[in-house]
Amino acid sequence: MNLVFDLHTHTTMSGHAYCTLLENIQCARDNGLQAYGISEHAPAMPGTVSEMYFINFKVIPKEVYGVKIFCGVEANIIDYDGNIDCSKLICDRVDYMIASMHSHCIEAGTMAQNTSAIIGAMENPLIKVIGHPDDSRYPLDYDAVVQAAVRTGTLIELNNSSLHPLSARKNGVENIKTLIGKCVEYGAKMIVNSDAHFCFDVGDFTAMSALLDEMEVPESLVVNTDISGLDYVLNKK
Ligand SMILES: [Zn+2]
Ligand SMILES: [Zn+2]
Fold first, then answer.
1. Which ligand approaches the C-alpha of residue 196 most closely?
2. 203: which of 31, 66, 119, 220 fits an S-S bond (Cβ 3.0–4.6 Å)?
3. Ligand nearest, relative to CA of residue 98
């Protein structure tokens, strides 16, 4: 499956990624992407940017090396109601918001608690994507999550990094297969992202693309098969 944008990436600003924004964009171009998004971890993540980082996005060109550039955030879900760590200042300045559960920002709860956290975040009209809901450290009721994704118009992320054998997330491959199956069953839209923490991974969707082909997933359910799929992330849901 050919995928033309990558909206979940990190730079040195995160404190635990190792390339610059420009290096990421160069790799986005080299990997054939039409659009690239930077989505730095929001302030609750240790070592990441402060609120100040988000207020000067205006200096970043809208297009670099022929690649359209978008400025987002990966918000941290901080409680089981699905609240996030982004002030109004951040929300007002980003092009899009991903929300995810991270071990540094929320303790893993029961399946019911984790599911409540994810669905609560989906109810937030600003959150367009749920990042890496594929980690057995945070067990989820996938039927409930995917049905809520359809109801709220939120995208389910298929995170290429979760397929990597060194990923800290548990059972990524099995959980992603389950998620894809449920998304096809309920007609939920998916977005493939790299979650790159090194530039060579930006736009490299080799593993996920192979899995999607193997599972014969319709292209119409994967929003980044066409540049028009950006509308699901940039427009109101
Ligand atoms: Zn990270
Ligand atoms: Zn994350």
1. 1
2. 31
3. 2
Strand-pair partners of 6: 36
Query: Which-ligand-closest: CA of 14?
Result: 1
Q: What is the pLDDT of residue 66?
A: 98
CA distances (Å), 194 to each of 4, 116, 123, 215, in order? 12, 26, 24, 19
Ligand with minimal distance to 134 CA: 2
Q: What is the mean pLDDT of each run of 10 residues along the chain (237 residues)?
A: 97 98 98 98 97 96 98 98 98 98 96 98 98 97 98 98 94 97 98 98 97 98 98 95
**If you measure from the C-alpha of residue 27 to the centroid of ligand 1, how many angstroms do you get, rounded to a whole number?**
18
Give the ligand whose atoms come closest to the C-alpha of residue 102: 2
What separation in Å is there between the alpha carbon of 156 and the centre of ligand 2? Answer: 13
For CA atoms 129, 73, 21, 162, the dihedral sign is: negative
Q: How far apart are the first and last CA of the chain?
A: 25
**Span from the CA of 79 to the centroid of ligand 2 (angstroms):** 16
| Residues surrounding ion ligand 2 at CB below 5 Å | 100, 131
Distance (angstroms) between ligand 2 centre and the Cα of 139 equals 16
